[in-house]
Fold:
Amino acid sequence: MKALMFGWEFPPHILGGLGTASYGLTKGMAKQEDMETIFVIPKPWGDEDQSFMKIIGANNTPIVWRDVPWEMAEARLGKLMNPQEYYWMRDNIYADFSYMHTNDLGCIEFSGRYPNNILEETNNYSIVAGVIARTYDFDVIHSHDWLTYPAGLHAKSISGKPMVIHVHATEFDRSRGKPNPIVYGIEKDGMDNCDHIICVSNLTRRTVIENYHQPYWKVTTVHNAVEPLSPEIASIKKLSGVQEKVVTFLGRITMQKGPEFFVDAATQVIRKTAHIRFVMAGSGDMMDQMIRLVAERGIAHKFHFTGFLRGKQVYEMLKSSDVYVMPSVSEPFGISPLEAMQCGVPSIISHQSGCSEILNNVIKTDYWDVDAMADAIYSICTYPAMAEYLKEEGKIEVDNIKWEDAGLKVRRIYDSLMQ
Amino acid sequence: MKTICFYFQIHQPFRLKRYRFFNIGRDHYYFDDYANEDILQQIAARSYIPANRMLLDLVNQYKGKFKVAFSISGVALEQLEIYAPEVIEGFRELSKTGNVEFLAETYAHSLSSLFDPEEFRNQVTHHAERIEMLFDQKPTVLRNTELIYDDKIAEMVYDMGYTKMITEGAKHILGWKSPNYIYQAASEPKLKLLLKNSRYSDDITYRFSNYSWNEYPLTAEKFISWIAATPSEEEVFNLFMNYETLGNIQPSHTGIFEFMKALPRFAFEHEIGFSTPREALENNKPIGAITVPNPISWSDEERDVSAWLGNKLQQSALKSLYEVGERVRLCTDRRLKQDWLYLQTSDHFYYMSTKHFGGEQSQFSPYMSPYDAFNNYMNVLSDFIARVKAQYPDTVDNEELNALLTTIHNQEMEIKRLQMELKTVIGSNEALLVKKIKKTEKAGKD
Structure:
């Protein structure tokens, strides 16, 4: 079974949960002996883990024929892929794209991020997909999130192979119910024309069925899992700077993540207690607003902002926390509480997050129920049995949530489409 | 002659209201009156009232040959008195027939037997007094909360003056032995034990209306024929169950009331009688001793205490609770003492059980999750402990405090005594004075 996957992010260069999930799933599926995956991303950096699959960079795929000597191809692409593949792909250029802006290899430049001209990038990505789909042999197409749906559809129309789309988030989650019509259009088009839809939670599945009008039999839930911690990360020690307990919010500070509810809960707790501090880690478009809110509430002496954390810093922050809170308003899955649990940090999550469907050893509240959230924070920081129990049982629980199992479910869907 | 021994358990906890940490120190009322009233009245209407009526009819109909026993926790009695006094009235009538026995148990339906022997003793005494006051009979058979029992508890119970006790016929304790005999405690051979027959009890409680059970439907005739078919030496069949089985766990449309009504008729046809636990224990000799090193109960497949003590949350909550027990007993504040009882009820800890996430038990819990239950309970307990500490200075330890309190008490008595003495002295002086005046007056007249 060969799968052609289209993704947008890939570790270690990630901006959100999408990259982590795509990586984990692919790695989990690689445990199946006959599974081969070609993973297309806009812009590989060369330090991605290619041990269990092949990565193709959209920005290394020629769409305009250029006479490139072998030495040049090797020098430019050698650390990313076998230069021979460049030539194979060059043989599959299917139309004249010389009007487009390309570099000396005949490739389009991609940022691989979420720039303002993201619609143009998705379109370019789809053009590149045409070349890749003609070059390689595969049995099934798998697109991760709306940015890659047009590319997947293009590949499907060329190859006639079944296409699966993997919904990690919908526009409804990102916008708290006020979707951008263009993005919605792309998502809907992808869902209407694909062969099967995989959702990361029942919550998302419901959104897909209700808001994108998909038939229920076409939509399956495959919950995300989490990669075991690497020894390097597992050995990070707790940075103990303060005496007080540390309660952490970690994620993009955007509407979807419900940061204001965290501030509200913090206000309640700080007014009543002396042994708890709060940290809001991450950045986002609501950060300034949150800083203002914290100042207005008069709790700035116990409420801290760290700004954006990357890589190891995330784990250092987690390991230094006593409670992790994710008050997301609408979270398709939300992998970060699982990471917190791996680090032995008791977590509080909202019922409105997909991961609450599979987690038992966490505290669940409604995102708007600030009282309950404050109470849970207080409880974990005050009653040692609670913290210890959640810490131990949470770790045991999360260690049993494996990508291999998610991979098997995805495989079953592939198999059913092949029949 | 074979005999069936019915005992029904009645218990309702005082459920806690939603108590957030910001209530600590401000709000000292912990209970969800609305839910407690609502639940109790529903169960009374569905189960307790019709069941009482049915049992009274049966007792009257068979003129003393049909007998049952009840164990009603003190906290349930209190709630019944407040919210459904007609149920208490029903029990009174049953008690008057002389064929209904009431058992002693822990007043608060607490786990005190495992943590606090003194509290255990107090609660059993308190409960027995309450039963005697309400139903005019002194309990002689003890049933511990949830049928919890082990060798140590046996010793405590015997020390308290009880020679008869009821517990679970747990398979891992009995092994090949049958629960249909009287046993004695290994640690205290004079303590006689009546063991629950789990199979027959659960046939009625849980399987009665289960369509997928191969014995469905269970008729009184079939049930009695099973008992009649047991070896003739097996004489006592202990059917112990929650009273809610009649009408609530098995709703009336399942035919449970008709089943119960028909049961005595078929029993008497097979020459099977009925007796109360006291009679069963008095009329039969123990055939052997049973050793129970670790506590057993009638809960879950394991029949152990893990439903209340299975995880760290429960252990920690119970530990924090019983740590203040000694101090509470030194206090005299009545509200504090009442809350102390209500907070000990085992149900609070059952709600914290993580044994079967999302399983059957969660339907009994008023909480969303065990964590929620723990959280709420601990908030309440924090406030309670603060109140206990506010009664006497924290720096004085219990022993010292006890000595001081005794001194104060003694001095108070002494003052009272002296005051009385003073009064009599003053009184006699006054009398003398009056006499004298009268005398002088007389002398003046003369």
In short: Chain A has two domains: 2-225+403-418, 231-399. Chain A has a mean pLDDT of 91.
